[in-house]
Amino acid sequence: MGFFHKQDAHKNMTAEEAADIEEHFFDENFREELRNHGRWYFEKVINKNADLFKKDLDATISQVNTELKDHVTQQLDAAITDINTELKERVTNQLDHQLAEYSKVLKDAQDSALQSITRSAQTLQEQHQQLAAELQKSIADQKTQLNGVFESNKAQIQTMNDSQASALQWLAQSTHAMQEQHDQLKKMLEEDVKAQESTLVEGFESNMAQVIEHYLLGALGDQYDLKAQLPAIIQQMEANKQAIVDDMKL
Amino acid sequence: MTDTPVKTSAQFVLPTSLVSRVDISRLVGEFEQVDNDLTAAAVRAKAGVEQQTKPVLSQPLADFLAENNLSIETSRDRNELITELRTLKDTAPILHMTFAVTADRDSLQTLTKWVRESIHPQAVIDVGLQPALVAGVYLRTPNHIHDLSLRAALKGQHAVLVEELESLRGSK
Question: Is this complex scored with an ipTM above 0.90?
Answer without folding.
Answer: no
